[in-house]
Amino acid sequence: MAEQASRLTAIDPVLAPVTEAVRDFLDGGKRLRPAFCYWGWRGAGAPDCPEIIVAAASLELLQAAALIHDDLMDDSNTRRGKPSIHRQFAAPLESGGHPGRWTDFGAAAAILIGDLCLSWCDAMIESSGIGPTELLRAKPTFQYMRTELMAGQYLDVLAQATGGTGVDRALKVIRYKAAKYTVERPLHIGGLLAGGQNALIETYSAYGLPIGEAFQLRDDILGVFGDPAETGKPAGDDLREGKRTLLVALAFERAGPAQRDLLEQSLGDRTLDDQGVDALRAVLVETDALAAVEALIERLTAGALHALDGGNVVGDAREALRELAVAATMRAG
Amino acid sequence: MAEQASRLTAIDPVLAPVTEAVRDFLDGGKRLRPAFCYWGWRGAGAPDCPEIIVAAASLELLQAAALIHDDLMDDSNTRRGKPSIHRQFAAPLESGGHPGRWTDFGAAAAILIGDLCLSWCDAMIESSGIGPTELLRAKPTFQYMRTELMAGQYLDVLAQATGGTGVDRALKVIRYKAAKYTVERPLHIGGLLAGGQNALIETYSAYGLPIGEAFQLRDDILGVFGDPAETGKPAGDDLREGKRTLLVALAFERAGPAQRDLLEQSLGDRTLDDQGVDALRAVLVETDALAAVEALIERLTAGALHALDGGNVVGDAREALRELAVAATMRAG
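Predict the joint structure of the above. Result:
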């Protein structure tokens, strides 16, 4: 980031807030994807070294890009307890000037800052010091991961636009937007950078996909029932945005007529008050959608740990991945 | 694109419109950046081959990403004579449903499709068949180019938001958003992929920067005075968007009080009618801003061709770059 900051301010000092905002944004992350990438490398028997730290950290820039663009698409005001990037850059609004212009500028800045993070993640992994051959063995997977992430995001916003309620669609969004992107692909990238063989890559899938799905299901639950002090997002935001999670899809499937009416009227209503949020939460509990998702998280995690035990992950990596599985699926924020 | 299309539809058939839209978008481009990249390779003495065609073509995906995001930021309705991507994907609006949701979906789709193009350009150059060592010699420049492009875009939208009128700022935007990105860096990338030496890279800068600046100045003139049938954009759009070009900056510098009032009131007024556009055009002519920009284009092109003649560009590339210089700066659309 220091390198990118000096490159940008050499172009023009007014660009300083761009790298400051990214640096600040990166501060608050859970760094799960770099962790899985790092342990993917170690699990193939490669040693701890600065090169894999840099390569793995590049995934946090991809995550920053995805979140900055995601917040703009959802028009979310808050991320990690702070104003989202498009809100931050629209702030001069408050000190006068043309309000419309500054709101537009906030959106434009968020698009461009996300684009910069997308480019910087390539630049970072490429300059990690890992050799050209090893790097280009992992790069196709790195690119698939980005395509899968954006495909998942597209399916997600399409479902929001069409008001889709299906369980199958919700599961597909989870698979591409979260399971592959958050766990499986980072493990693969670490493994491929280290020269890992097919059997290892398959173990990473057998462990990574269920853990990634469980991770996202936990995220969905926290988006509705989580403590804002822990999640960094206002309570009920996901309900007001009308996010089509598995939790919601299951509630639709199991709802009685009155519950269904409530879901249809209140989900995606941006003006919903706290009472309305509570009423929606009650439907998710009373239809047993919440209990079903909790049970699924448990089943997925157990399956992942079983695959990990049966696989050929070496050294400390097996224990680290066991701990990460718990951290990713049992967290509070 | 066929490969990306089959990857996306394997995830879900509803993703088919994404690659169709990109394919369609790529159809209409001038392909200047790939041309400069290709001749950068040939100018270093490397032979024509499929690998450089693929590597050079990847730059067209970067350009697609930049334009798709740019059109969203400017809320432009039209690109290359067709609806812009965010308009295309907001179209189900017309066939009923929730209008607001579909407009939001159009914006979200444009963000994600631009992001996909940004990732695909890396994937394409990486899978070009050029060896890992050669590729990673050029990749840092490829990444600087993206950073410079987005920095230039940021300066551009910031100037629009603040209503900046300075000549220096306008020249800086041109340098980063256009000169380096359109000509100098593509030449460098081609040259570096071919193993070109420093002297060649310097010649590419001495030729590329002025040609790139002249290219953008021509673009600015066409954005105001061009024939919509040739440019694919409605006449006067740049004036309604309030683009802070050198043409506009010079007009501000040279304007009398009445002309300045007109510029301040009408530039960036999205409701401006044809008569208002004509009045602004008249100010750009009467202040001699247009004549000054035309003279500058001529001077820059002459300087670039002089540098080309004095440099060590080999083979057919010298003649091709001479022709490209004319095509880029004397075009009508």
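Chain B is about 75% helix and 0% strand.
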